[in-house]
């Protein structure tokens, strides 16, 4: 009997505790929600205030520009194939910038990752240094490096390539390092026992383990870099973005060209997206097959 | 007989192994060779050999030197005889009449001490420059004969550049230029000039201790005002610009998440039985993602004009596609058992979603959104440079003028700090809101981990 009452008292206490906890959680959640909503509202208001055109006005005009471009492109639709061929070299340049930057960035990222992974690093004491270097490379937006390099090296694909490569090295360095942390050290030790030097241990012991993952991340980065290289073209570093800006600054009369560039860019991005999706699926699948074999 | 087959098998196996090895070897050497070949192609396609010729190393040197040092001009107008002292030759950095830094002694003969024994004297007629180890150089600007110079005996050193109407002397202490119309001396200093206060502020040149003393005596507001409205560095505007950039990223990312969440339900197989709607929704996501942020920026800038709202909307539109895809995939991986469990208690549809689905996808959703918040801070900088808003605009403006490289260096530093801060902040928030999200186990502390409390 006494036990039962004690149990009931416990139960009541537990229920009270639980209700109190739930209530507190609700209050916290409510406060957070109100804070979030008011931040969004205030932020939107500020942004709207500081914008040249208002939100409500702009909303009505949002389709004007696409409509203008489309009507002109349709009027001159006979010239579209010609434009597509004309801008193909620029597209190839944009793709080349992205590909070369991804390759260089992946190489740099691999080195940074290996140097900043516990157990693999050549100078274990300098791991924090290489981590910070990767962080800084990642934090610098491509456009900053590109604009400065354009000033020194002149316009063209090289500044864009270097800028994207630096950012890619930082971003991939971090991801690669997370992968490399999970790599087995046994092959590395085995190689060390045969007298292999650091580069050999990494190339023969670590890279084969992490290769598929590295390539998968690099492919993902390639997608992102195509977009980045198009944007950098817009600020003066060659490629399709540069052509787009030229076509746009001419304004009416050249919108058919702008439409052709929009189309090329869109198709390329979607195509690369799809291909890299397939490839990445196969890579992870292939890696699994390798483990079972 | 059986042994023969085994032998055959062995030979076959050995053969197979050999083939495997050959293939691996081919791959092992082929792939790097392919990469090298591609890089070689790029080397010539991007005209790297011609790059050295096109590159302007002088620009590079100015850029680097200017980003950490500045020069003060002392200029004498040779017609009126007036001497003015200005930082970087800018109007905003000019000393008022009769005022000068302590290394310039104004008078009938203005004496400029360039340190290390280098002394320049702007006399009424003649400019003199004492160069240690060389001698005294005299240059007299005249109406009729151009600049008449008297050099110490010997060959003309290569750091003196002389023509009929101009003489330029460049030493490690500074630079002197004399033409018919004016004589000018540059003295170089390390640091960012007038970073705290401009010359017209009474607080210019005071020590930090002195400033602290004055601030304590009730001048803190005035000191802050002079710093915040510094006409050269425009600290107030820069802070606004950074705020705008972060605002763009914040509005864009969270706006996209709010829009993408309901749409993701429409695109998820287990929540929407209508296949055509699902298909249409997915194509919408693909389309929005495929039309790159660049194109959205261009289109939206036409409608909304330059400013942070345009940037926020560009990020919002692009990311709704990405979030829609990620969220719908997360929704398809939701465990049905929890929803059934909630249903078994008699919950209606809204409650099933609220207690069966949302708690399952919140961690994925939040961590993705917070990852994007950091990367969008960078995107907002870039988009700002295109549409004109935020720190991206200030940076492009500073680069286009091609002389304020110290400001460019300052902005780059601020951008890097801003992105790193957002990176840290989003990581911190992720760890707070999602239990077990941090990969590394935390050190046990005295008080237990606080409960995640994002949703009630």
UniProtKB/TrEMBL annotation, chain A:
Pfam families tied to this protein: BPD_transp_1
Broad class of the protein's primary localization: membrane
Membrane-spanning intervals of the chain: 27-47, 97-123, 143-166, 258-275
Protein location: Cell membrane
CDD domains per UniProt: TM_PBP2
InterPro entries noted in UniProt: MetI-like (IPR000515), MetI-like_sf (IPR035906), PhnE/PtxC (IPR005769)
Membrane topology according to the record: Multi-pass membrane protein
Residues annotated as domain ABC transmembrane type-1: 91-276
Keywords, comma-separated and alphabetical: Cell membrane, Membrane, Transmembrane, Transmembrane helix, Transport
Family indicated by similarity: Belongs to the binding-protein-dependent transport system permease family.
Protein name: Phosphonate ABC transporter, permease protein PhnE
From TrEMBL, chain B:
Keywords: Membrane, Transmembrane, Transmembrane helix, Transport
Record PROSITE patterns: ABC_TM1 (PS50928)
Taxonomic lineage of the native organism: Bacteria, Pseudomonadati, Pseudomonadota, Alphaproteobacteria, Rhodobacterales
Protein name stated in the entry: Phosphonate ABC transporter, permease protein PhnE
Broad class of where this protein is predominantly found: membrane
PANTHER family hit by this protein: PHOSPHONATES TRANSPORT SYSTEM PERMEASE PROTEIN
Location(s), subcellular: Cell membrane
SUPFAM superfamilies for this protein: MetI-like
Record-stated family: Belongs to the binding-protein-dependent transport system permease family.
Gene: phnE
Transmembrane segment boundaries: 26-46, 238-266, 380-402, 408-425
Membrane topology: Multi-pass membrane protein
Species in which this protein is naturally found: Ruegeria aquimaris
Domain ABC transmembrane type-1, residue spans: 242-426
């Amino acid at each position: 009997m006494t036990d039962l009452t004690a149990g009931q008292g416990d139960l009541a206490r537990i229920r009270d505790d639980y209700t109190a906890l739930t209530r507190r959680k609700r209050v916290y959640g409510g406060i957070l929600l109100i804070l979030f909503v008011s931040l969004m509202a205030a932020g939107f208001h500020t942004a709207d205030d500081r914008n040249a055109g208002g939100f409500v006005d702009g909303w009505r005009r949002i389709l004007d520009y696409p409509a203008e471009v489309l009507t002109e492109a349709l009027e001159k639709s006979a010239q579209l194939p010609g434009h597509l061929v004309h801008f193909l070299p620029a597209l190839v340049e944009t793709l080349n910038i992205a590909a070369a930057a991804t390759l260089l960035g992946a190489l740099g990222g691999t080195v940074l990752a290996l140097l900043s992974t516990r157990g693999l690093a050549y100078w274990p004491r300098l791991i924090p240094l290489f981590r910070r270097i990767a962080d800084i490379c990642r934090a610098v937006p491509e456009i900053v490096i590109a604009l400065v390099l354009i000033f020194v090296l002149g316009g063209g694909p090289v500044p864009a390539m270097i800028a994207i490569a630096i950012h890619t090295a930082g971003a991939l360095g971090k991801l690669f390092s997370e992968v490399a942390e999970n790599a087995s050290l046994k092959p590395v030790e085995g190689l060390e026992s045969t007298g292999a030097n650091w580069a050999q241990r990494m190339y023969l012991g670590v890279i084969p383990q992490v290769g598929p993952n590295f390539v998968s991340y690099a492919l993902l980065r390639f997608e992102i870099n195509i977009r980045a290289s198009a944007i950098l073209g817009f600020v003066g570093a060659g490629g399709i973005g540069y052509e787009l800006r030229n076509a746009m600054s001419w304004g009416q009369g050249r919108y058919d060209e702008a439409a052709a560039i929009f189309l090329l860019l869109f198709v390329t991005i979607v195509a690369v997206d799809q291909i890299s999706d397939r490839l990445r699926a196969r890579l992870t699948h292939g890696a699994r097959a390798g483990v079972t074999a | 007989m059986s042994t023969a087959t085994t032998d055959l098998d062995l030979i076959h196996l050995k053969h197979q192994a050999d083939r495997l090895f050959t293939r691996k070897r081919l791959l092992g050497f082929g792939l790097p060779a392919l990469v090298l070949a591609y890089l070689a192609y790029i080397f010539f396609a991007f005209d790297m050999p011609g790059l050295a010729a096109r590159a302007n190393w002088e620009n590079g040197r100015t850029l680097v030197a200017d980003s950490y040092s500045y020069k003060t001009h002392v200029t004498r107008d040779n017609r009126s005889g007036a001497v003015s002292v200005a930082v970087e030759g800018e109007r905003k950095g000019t000393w008022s009449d009769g005022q000068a830094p302590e290394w310039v002694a104004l008078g009938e003969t203005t004496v400029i001490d360039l340190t290390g024994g280098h002394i320049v004297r702007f006399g009424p007629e003649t400019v003199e420059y004492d160069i240690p180890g060389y001698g005294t150089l005299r240059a007299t600007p005249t109406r009729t004969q151009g600049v008449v110079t008297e050099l110490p005996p010997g060959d003309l050193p290569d750091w003196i550049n002389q023509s009929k109407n101009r003489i330029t002397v460049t030493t490690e202490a500074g630079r002197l230029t004399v033409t018919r119309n004016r004589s000018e001396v540059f003295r170089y200093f390390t640091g960012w000039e007038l970073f705290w206060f401009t010359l017209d502020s009474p607080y210019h040149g005071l020590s930090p201790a002195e400033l602290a003393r004055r601030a304590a005596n009730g001048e803190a507001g005035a000191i802050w005002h002079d710093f915040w409205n510094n006409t050269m560095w425009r600290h107030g505007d820069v802070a606004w610009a950074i705020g705008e950039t972060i605002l763009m990223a914040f509005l864009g990312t969270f706006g996209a998440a709010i829009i993408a969440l309901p749409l993701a339900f429409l695109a998820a197989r287990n929540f929407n039985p209508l296949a055509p709607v699902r298909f249409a929704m997915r194509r919408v996501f693909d389309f929005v993602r495929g039309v790159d942020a660049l194109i959205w920026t261009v289109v939206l800038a036409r409608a909304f004009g330059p400013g942070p709202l345009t940037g926020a909307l560009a990020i919002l539109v692009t990311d709704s596609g990405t979030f829609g895809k990620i969220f719908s995939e997360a929704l398809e991986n939701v465990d049905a058992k929890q929803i059934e469990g909630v249903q078994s208690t008699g919950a209606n549809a809204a409650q099933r979603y609220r207690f069966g689905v949302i708690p399952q996808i919140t961690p994925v959703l939040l961590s993705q959104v917070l990852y994007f918040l950091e990367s969008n801070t960078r995107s907002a900088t870039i988009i700002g440079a295109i549409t004109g808003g935020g720190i991206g605009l200030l940076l492009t403006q500073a680069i286009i003028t091609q002389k304020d490289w110290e400001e460019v260096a300052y902005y780059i530093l601020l951008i890097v700090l801003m992105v790193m801060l957002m990176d840290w902040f989003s990581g911190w928030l992720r760890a707070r809101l999602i239990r077990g999200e941090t990969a590394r186990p935390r050190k046990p502390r005295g008080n237990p981990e606080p409960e995640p409390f994002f949703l009630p």
